[in-house]
Every structure is written in structure tokens, then in C-alpha cells.
Amino acid sequence: GRDGTARTSGWTFHGERPAWAGLEHSAEAEVVLASLDATPPSSRDDTLSLIRTTAVRHQGNRALRQVSLDADDWQILFRALVEAESSYNPTAVSPKDAYGLGQLMPDTARALGVDPRDPSQNLDGAARYLLAQLGTFKDIDLALAAYNAGPHRVVEYSGIPPFIETRDYIARIHRIRSRLAGTPVSAPDIRVADRVPARAPVLIDLQ
């Protein structure tokens, strides 16, 4: 974005840190992370398998019911996000230091309690972060906008921020979803906010 907050990948803190930023990840999350295979994927097939495994692990999350995503739709959405973020490259690094398959920013990875250099943990953090946005905004487009531009921007504009990069990011993910699902590709109806931004606190529940 023109103010440097919208990115092709990842998310970081801008201005005042949100209330959840200092929270430690839960004991349950520690158990899950300890059980993840830290071996880097050796092929695209291995990466796709890791993506599926991660999606299945989180397919019971209540946020998915709130946006009417079944298990298959959730797996497709999550894979589409990873493809858009990193093109399935587990060592991808953005100019702003977002890292890995889910392009996690360093502060975001720390808040989630994951090592972004570990592909399994990176994916787990990306899934949890996307689910947190779905649970907060209860809308797929708003959640994707929050993943790209930051949840504070979605709240600030009371909708999708009017950043070309964010709009194109959402459209690209929808095109990937259509291809993965084998459905006709149509132009998505992305409702970009046109109102004056209003400051408001951002509270995200990281699970």
C-alpha cells in the first residue's frame, strides 16, 4: 500500500501492538508444535501433503462453521492462500522478511509461538492466523484482507482496505480456489471499502 502496510505476503504490527500480541501460545499449541515433523519437505508433493495435514488438523475450528466452509472448502482455501503467498516455496523470503510457506512476519510468528523456518510450524501458524481472521471478521474476503494488509486496516476502513495490492491478492486467491476446485473462474465481487477510515481497537483471538 501507499503507506507500506499492505503486502503481497505476511502480516506485521503497525503502530500500537494489538492486545493479543504479547500472549504466549497455549499449552495445547505447544503439544501440537512439539509433535510436528521438522524435516523440510523435499518435493512439491511433500509440501502439498504438509498443507493437507495442517488443514485437516484444524478443520474442526468453529470459525469455519461461521463462514460456512466445510472441510473440503477449507482445505482448498488454505492451499490457495499458501500458493498465493509463497508458490509452495518453504524458504521463500519477502522484501519485508516474511518467511516460508505462509509468509509469516517475525512478530506474527513469535505471537503464534512458531518457528517460521520450520515448514510444518509455519503452516500451522498460517492456518491458525487465517482461522483467527475468519473467526473475527466472519467473512472470507475480510479475513484474506486482514491476512494481507493487517486486521487493523480492515477495522480502520470498516471493510476491505482500498489498496490495489490487497484487492488483487483476494482476487488471486479466489482464482486459485476455482482452479483447485475445478469450478468455472468468474470475476469475484470484492467489496472494497469507500468510507473514511475510523480508528478502532483490534482484538484477535489466536487459537
Detailed description of the structure:
- With 207 residues, this protein is an all-alpha fold.
- It has a single domain, classed as Lysozyme (Orthogonal Bundle).
- Helix content is 51%, strand content 0%.
- The N terminus is likely disordered.
Task: Write out key terms for the chains shown.
207 residues; mainly alpha; Lysozyme; disordered N terminus
Beta-sheet strand percentage?
A: under 5%
Main sheet makeup? none
Helical stretch tally: 9
The Rg value, from CA coordinates, equals: 16 Å
Number of strands: 0
Quickly give the structural class: mainly alpha
Unreliable stretches (pLDDT < 50, length at least 5) are 1-37
The first-level CATH class name: Mainly Alpha
Oligomer, anyone? Answer: single chain
For the record, the CATH architecture stands as: Orthogonal Bundle
Shape: globular
Count of distinct structural domains: 1
Helix fraction, binned, reads 40-55%
**Mean pLDDT level:** 81
Distance between the termini: 28 Å
CATH topology descriptor: Lysozyme
Strand-helix topology:
Elements: H1 27-35, H2 44-57, H3 62-66, H4 71-86, H5 106-112, H6 119-137, H7 140-149, H8 151-157, H9 164-181
Helix pairs in contact: 2-4, 2-6, 4-9, 6-7, 7-8, 7-9
